[in-house]
Design brief:
alpha+beta, 133 residues, 29% strand, TATA-Binding Protein
Amino acid sequence: MVTTAMAYGMKKTVPLSYDKAVEKTRAALKDQGFGVLTEIDIKEKLKEKLGVDFKRYIILGACNPPLAHKALLAEPEIGLLLPCNVIVYEVTDDESVVAAADPEVMMQVAGNDTLRTVAEDAKKRLKIALANV
């Protein structure tokens, strides 16, 4: 499956169940040096807070420590845009979408050239991770 660019991210529809897509996404992120710092189960939170049903959907806060360190050294406030968000959501029983925020787009708002190279590296790694799901 092909990864498609969006204005603020990149996504890929995969022929995998939600559980398998989440598992493969975690593994692909790990292979590219990302750890998952946060997880938000949107289906669970919407049920808990609003009493509504929603498809299975998770937000993974992915962090590559060396890249995060470089970014924070360049601009301490960049933590407002970290970690890189990666989502997985269910389309059907055997199809899911995996998407990641585009670090280059996120870092543009800072206007700091040092962050550009960090964002390029992060984007390259996220694209590889998505390709490997």
